[in-house]
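Appendix C: a fully annotated inverse folding record. The material below is reproduced so that readers can follow the format used throughout the book. The structure is listed first as tokens, followed by the designed sequence.
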């Protein structure tokens, strides 16, 4: 009877006796593997919390020191008498908080009730302060406590995004198998089953059947391998302190993401309402209820990024307008990965040509999705391949109108990057985007330009997405302030600002902006390679301003910074590149996306490096070069810092990268990679230093399949540990040549490699 019950319960062969014992052994193995991963992960997390605790305690103490002891009265609504406490020299909340009840009672005039009330009030203020302080890791001034934190975080970062999946799987197995294995044990022997009561026998057979399903699912998803890899990563010995700091510099975002998750802060957000874009509660609740499948994702999300991806999924047709630097691309990829996990196979991304290669690289690096660029001479073949096999097709505004509409199901999601490019409904690109948005159920527009002061532009975007909202959008809602505007358009618009959500993110964010040569760029580059001119190769991307892919991306970055009121510093090694940049920004008037004429007054360059009117009405200062006197350099920097709102400062990297204080800038653009890495480090350090109150974004413009690629590859193979150590020394600050790892044959080697590559390519 037991055999028959077993077969019926499991839907397969008998699961009593030997077969059941083998299955139970497999379940025990999974259970032990899961518990090992959970225990190791708990230890790793506790190590981070242990390292974090003294740093947070010090920040809390500093805050409490600045709060006068009289504020304790506010907590007790004025009932606390503090005259005796203040007379005893306890002038701050910190002094009371760190005192014991006994110490307070030794003060003449302080009784037991006053001491208890004072301590309770001080603890209440301390708890409130603890919720607001944020630990920042200063890479330029490492000390033992921050080194311990970086090393503890490094173990979790090194395990990668698969660790989260392994821990989730381990928790599920621990929860289910912890209950099922004891219940299934009677099935391991026929005698035990015979003596078990009917109810226990039935429970044992049901448990065996469920264990079989869990084991089969574990095999199908390679859970054993996932758990084994996680256990190995979590047991790996911590890196040396120098290696840990080098890795932190390379992957600081991942370190801060782990820190935010462990420090019990939702996404590192100082204000949950702000991190959720001031959405009405009913929409926020709907977003929180939206699941987010991470099967095809290879990147961890901060809390606000997870919310943004869920918003796009829950609301279906929206504008994500986060300020630049908050990871709109990652949020879009997370939404695409979720839909892929739900069975969708085709997605389409439309973007400016200048960021097409970035999108391709990001999708491949951040997800398991297949990225297919649909651009250039082979675009129709690539499009046909995408329609047949699926993946993420990435195309440009100028190509979109040439692509035939899908004859079957529409893409699972259409993503439109730099969506303000379609603000003019009469242009060809806008009509093409409108045609595709009409076919797609899910549409995500991305723009870093705030819409609150561009109501007509926003109406145009919403017309593509949610035309029924148009009656709700008028100038009066914008006039009431940004929060009121966002609430009025909440069903279709989410925007978060850096100051609201980056309380624990690094003060320095690096982005490599990869571009593909335009035809003009490529011709200039080939000529420089054939001539063996290394310096001409490095600046070939700016030889033709009209066709320069790098220059176009620089314009877009400056325009977005202008939309957010941020100051920008542009560095190049070459004076002629800076002259080209200045002329483009002066004449560009913000690189108007829809090809409209420049605004009145644009293009007014000033003599001798003085301010001219540039992108979006912002002033362009410089360039600061070696031929500009020290006094004149400082005057340009002072004028740049004093300019109201957005402005641009152009600097030759060897002149502007040393000795100047540029912390007024929040965005740094490097026109090309440098042969001497310390030049880049010092240039960025001019903006990212004490006194900088915003996160600094560093955008390095790079051309794929060029000297930029070769240069980075060679320098990456050098001894980066020595380079990282040297960059923190006083010698490096004074004489970069003394510690740079570049060698005299570097230029010759790159020229020869490029000559061979281009010759082989015909």
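Designed amino acids, in order:
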């Amino acid at each position: 009877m037991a055999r028959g019950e077993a077969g019926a319960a499991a839907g397969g062969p008998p699961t009593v006796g030997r077969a059941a014992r083998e299955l139970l052994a497999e379940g025990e193995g999974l259970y032990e593997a899961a518990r090992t991963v959970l225990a190791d992960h708990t230890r790793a997390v506790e190590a981070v919390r242990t390292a974090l605790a003294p740093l947070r305690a010090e920040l809390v103490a500093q805050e409490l020191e600045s709060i006068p002891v009289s504020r304790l009265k506010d907590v007790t609504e004025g009932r606390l008498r503090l005259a005796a406490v203040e007379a005893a020299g306890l002038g701050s909340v910190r002094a009371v908080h760190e005192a014991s009840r006994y110490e307070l009672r030794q003060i003449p005039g302080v009784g037991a009730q006053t001491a208890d009330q004072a301590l309770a009030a001080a603890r209440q203020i301390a708890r409130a302060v603890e919720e607001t302080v944020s630990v920042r890791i200063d890479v330029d001034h490492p000390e033992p406590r921050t080194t311990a934190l970086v090393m503890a975080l490094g173990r979790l970062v090194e395990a990668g995004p698969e660790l989260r999946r392994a821990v989730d799987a381990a928790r599920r197995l621990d929860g289910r198998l912890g209950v099922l294995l004891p219940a299934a044990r009677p099935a391991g022997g026929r005698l035990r089953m015979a003596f078990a009561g009917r109810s226990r026998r039935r429970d044992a057979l049901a448990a065996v059947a469920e264990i079989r399903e869990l084991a089969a699912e574990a095999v199908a998803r390679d859970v054993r391998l996932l758990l084994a890899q996680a256990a190995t990563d979590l047991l790996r010995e911590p890196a040396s302190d120098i290696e840990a700091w080098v890795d932190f510099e390379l992957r600081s975002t991942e370190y801060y993401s782990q820190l935010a998750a462990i420090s019990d802060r939702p996404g590192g957000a100082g204000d949950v309402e702000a991190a959720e874009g001031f959405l009405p509660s009913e929409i926020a609740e709907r977003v929180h209820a939206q699941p987010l499948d991470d099967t095809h994702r290879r990147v961890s999300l901060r809390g606000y990024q997870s919310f943004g991806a869920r918003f796009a999924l829950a609301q279906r047709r929206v504008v994500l307008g986060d300020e630049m630097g908050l990871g709109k691309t990652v949020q879009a990829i997370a939404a695409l990965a979720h839909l892929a996990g739900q069975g969708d196979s085709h997605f389409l991304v439309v973007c400016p040509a200048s960021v097409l290669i970035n999108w391709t690289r990001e999708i491949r690096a951040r997800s398991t999705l297949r990225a297919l660029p649909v651009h250039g001479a082979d675009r129709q073949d690539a499009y046909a391949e995408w329609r047949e096999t699926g993946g993420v097709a990435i195309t440009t505004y100028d190509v979109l109108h040439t692509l035939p509409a899908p004859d079957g199901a529409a893409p699972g999601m259409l993503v439109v990057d730099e969506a303000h490019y379609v603000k003019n409904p009469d242009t060809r690109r806008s009509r093409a985007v409108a045609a595709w948005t009409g076919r797609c159920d899910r549409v995500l527009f991305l723009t870093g330009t705030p819409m609150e002061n561009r109501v007509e532009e926003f109406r145009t975007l919403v017309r593509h997405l949610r035309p029924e909202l148009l009656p709700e959008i008028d100038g009066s809602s914008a006039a009431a302030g940004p929060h009121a505007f966002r609430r009025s358009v909440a069903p279709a618009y989410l925007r978060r600002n850096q100051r609201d959500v980056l309380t624990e993110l690094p003060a320095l964010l690096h982005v490599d902006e990869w571009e593909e040569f335009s035809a003009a760029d490529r011709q200039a580059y080939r000529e420089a390679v054939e001539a063996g001119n290394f310096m001409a190769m490095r600046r070939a991307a700016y030889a033709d301003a009209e066709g320069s892919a790098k220059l176009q991306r620089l314009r877009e970055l400056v325009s977005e910074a202008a939309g957010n009121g941020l100051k920008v510093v542009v560095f190049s090694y070459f004076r002629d590149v800076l002259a080209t940049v200045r002329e483009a920004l002066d004449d560009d008037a913000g690189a108007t996306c829809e090809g409209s004429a420049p605004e009145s007054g644009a293009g007014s360059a000033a003599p001798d490096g003085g301010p001219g009117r540039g992108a979006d009405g912002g002033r362009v200062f410089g360039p600061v070069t070696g031929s500009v006197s020290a006094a004149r350099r400082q005057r340009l920097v002072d004028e740049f810092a004093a300019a109201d709102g957005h402005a641009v400062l152009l600097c030759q990297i060897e002149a502007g990268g040393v000795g100047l204080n540029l912390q007024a800038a929040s965005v740094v653009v490097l026109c090309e990679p440098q042969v001497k890495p310390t030049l880049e480090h010092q240039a960025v350090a001019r903006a990212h230093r004490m006194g900088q109150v915003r996160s600094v974004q560093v955008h390095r413009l790079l051309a794929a399949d060029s000297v930029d690629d070769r240069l980075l590859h060679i320098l990456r193979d050098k001894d980066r540990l020595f380079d990282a150590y040297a960059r923190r020394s006083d010698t490096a600050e004074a004489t970069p040549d003394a510690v740079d790892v570049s060698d005299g044959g570097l230029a010759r080697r790159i020229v020869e490699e490029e000559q061979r590559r281009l010759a082989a390519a015909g």
